[in-house]
Design brief:
The protein has three domains: 206 residues, no CATH class; 272 residues, no CATH class; 76 residues. Helix content is 72%, strand content 4%. The protein has 27 helices and three strands. It has a three-stranded mixed sheet with strand order 1-2-3. The longest helix is centred in the last third of the chain and has 48 residues. The N terminus is likely disordered.
């Protein structure tokens, strides 16, 4: 693959239209929605679909080793430092934009049905379009500053959408939690940007790809890479900054699908792929990425095992799957990380929207213990959920098989790419394999508890309207055949090779050959094991899970309480900070600052009142005061 700097640049002023579509759509949807609420969703959906069509246009216009550029204007110029408000569209950007606008448009259409009876839907669809606008800024930005504007934009929109039903105090608190936790990561991101400006005088990706490899020490590269990864742990919910993502379930279900599948949480993975030339110079940072990602994938998977809220199961699943993506990126297989990002967008969006369909049908019930037997009354939702379950389980020929297989393979050969990873690659592959088995188990558990057996709730469930069913069917189709297409017809590895390192492109045997099919089925054993075990335990031996939970009571309690991470943060960070804030409020602000100001005013007021008593307007009083004053002066001089 040619380096980024050797790409042929083509000026293309139409790139700005892509993010402008959802931005204009947000404004029009909100304004028109004040008069016609039902039109808001359709306007927002049309805007996101139009952006998707412009992405498709540029996708086909993009040639081999080409980068489309749109330098709108000079944004900042200080001395020798100058930065443009510019967009770039290469093969990596194309893939990301197709995911953002394509999956995003399906989620918009779904939301038309899901939010049909919400009085605040004009505001909801305006926020949804703003979310797409921010994510498009992030992936289209030609430099770190434009990317950072989008980075902060998705943070703001997540706060607005997670706390959309803000009259519920808990939901509003979840939005604040997401906002604050992300700011921690963003502070590290800013420090990394300052270091890059100080050492290289540019934030432009193409310029940095030419300058950094020859002018960067390993220590500096490691420092910058670790700071950027800390930023990524916030946006992409890795340990220790993953605690906000499960609470993001407070927002409407389409929001969960948009955050977890198509937009915000993928930002950190994209950042590593975009700055691959920097991370390649920091093998120690890559080791840190792999260690954190492996731990995240395993911890989140174990927590998902015991969750009974259907959305919480999928939330912790997202955290775990993001760990898989960072494992691939940390092993140097950036294209594999993007591959799993794309397949995950297919099946996770379908799973979340499927859960929303169930919640919608069951009158906002989210506890799987109060569901069951729903596939009889919700055949489309059930079928699409099962397809996506098999996809995330990593079973051939579903989409998740191809990307997970490449991740495990990348970890096994990580030592050849990065000597720092040599002792850890194989153990990490074992951890990832175990996490893959757990993934297949807990998602199948959620499907079995929701759709199999007999109905245990009190509502009268029904299939969702067509606006919700159509996106489910499309996403299930992508989860079913998308991996085959990306592995074969398109060859995502070869396609991304025009933008990022992909190693040697292997053209293996045909997927139709018997040996390939046999190997694929054999490599699907973690998925088969997890799915089979879950089906057995939750359909044939339903008493066993309860016995296991009681037998391992303390550990089950630890998992149910998410390893007490929130409680730990509350004890060592949140409550001490609240105590300090309360002291500063009561002791410093009210007692000292307000006290000194109010005390000064009180002294002036009291002295004024005293002096006012001497102003009576009567001559005898003034004569008396003059006499007393004269005596005071005489005695004063006599005393001296």
């Amino acid at each position: 693959m040619e380096s980024m700097g050797s790409h042929r640049e083509i000026v293309d002023a139409s790139l700005a239209i892509i993010p402008l579509c959802p931005l204009v759509g947000a404004m029009v949807a909100y304004i028109v929605g004040q008069k016609q609420k039902d039109l808001a969703g359709w306007i927002a959906t049309a805007a996101s679909t139009l952006a998707f069509l412009f992405v498709v246009k540029n996708f086909f216009a993009l040639g081999t080793n080409q980068v489309l550029l749109d330098k709108s204007f000079v944004w900042l110029s200080v001395g020798n430092f100058s930065i443009d408000f510019a967009f770039q569209f290469d093969h990596l950007t194309a893939v990301m934009c197709l995911v953002v606008t394509g999956i995003g448009s399906l989620i918009h259409l779904y939301s038309v049905g899901y939010m049909a009876h919400d009085e605040s839907r004009p505001r909801f669809f305006a926020y949804l379009n703003l979310f797409l606008f921010s994510m498009l800024l992030l992936v289209l930005g030609a430099n770190l500053l434009v990317l950072f504007v989008g980075w902060e934009g998705v943070g703001l929109c997540s706060y607005l959408l997670i706390g959309f039903w803000h009259k519920n105090i808990a939901f509003a608190g979840a939005g604040r939690k997401a906002f604050v936790v992300n700011r921690i990561g963003d502070a590290a991101f800013l420090l990394a940007m300052f270091l890059i400006i100080m050492n290289y005088g540019s934030l432009d990706f193409m310029a940095l790809s030419r300058v950094m490899p020859g002018e960067t020490s390993e220590g500096l590269a490691t420092l910058i890479s670790v700071l950027l990864f800390i930023g990524a742990t916030g946006k992409s919910a890795q340990i220790p900054l993953f605690v906000w993502l499960p609470d993001a379930m407070a927002g409407p279900t389409p929001v969960s699908a948009l955050i977890h599948a198509a937009t915000m949480v993928t930002a950190g993975v994209y950042l590593m792929a975009r700055l691959n030339f920097l991370f390649e110079m920091a093998p120690l940072a890559m080791l840190v990425v792999c260690m954190v990602a492996g731990l995240t994938a395993l911890v989140a998977a174990t927590i998902a095992l015991v969750q009974n809220d259907i959305k919480k199961v999928l939330a912790y699943s997202t955290v775990s799957q993001l760990g898989f993506m960072f494992l691939a990126a940390g092993a140097g297989a950036y294209w594999v990380a993007i591959f799993h990002l794309v397949t995950h967008a297919f099946f996770k969006a379908c799973l979340f929207l499927g859960s929303g369909s169930v919640i919608h049908a069951c009158h906002h019930e989210q506890d799987m213990r109060h569901m069951g037997g729903l596939q009889r009354v919700m055949p489309f939702t059930a079928a699409t959920y099962w397809i996506s379950t098999l996809a995330i389980a990593g079973i051939f020929p579903f989409a998740g098989y191809f990307s997970k297989h490449h991740i495990l393979s990348a970890l096994e050969h990580a030592g050849a790419h990065n000597p720092q990873l040599f002792p850890w690659g194989v153990p990490l592959s074992y951890i990832a394999t175990f996490a893959a088995i757990l993934t297949a188990f807990y998602v199948t558990r959620s499907a079995a508890m929701t759709f199999l057996g007999s109905y245990r709730g009190h509502a009268h469930p029904h299939e969702s309207p067509w606006q919700m069913v159509v996106p489910l069917v499309v996403l299930a189709g992508l989860a079913l055949v998308g991996g085959v297409f990306l592995e074969g017809a398109l060859s995502l590895q070869h396609y991304l090779g025009h933008a990022i390192p992909v190693g040697d492109v292997h053209h293996g045997e045909s997927m139709a050959s018997f040996s390939f099919l046999l190997n694929a089925l054999l490599h699907s054993w973690p998925g088969f094991l997890g799915v089979g075990l879950a089906l057995f335990l939750y359909t044939q031996a339903k008493e066993i899970p309860g016995k296991i939970a009681r037998a391992f009571g303390p550990f089950t309690q630890v998992l149910a309480n998410k390893y007490y991470v929130d409680e730990l943060y509350g004890a060592i960070i949140v409550r001490p900070l609240e105590g300090m804030a309360r002291f500063l409020w009561k002791g410093a602000d009210q007692a000292v600052i307000d006290g000194s100001v109010n005390g000064t005013a009180a002294v002036v007021e009291i002295s004024g009142e005293l002096i006012r008593t001497t102003s009576t307007g009567q001559l005898r009083h003034y004569g008396f005061f003059m006499f007393v004053g004269t005596l005071f002066i005489i005695f004063f001089y006599m005393a001296l």
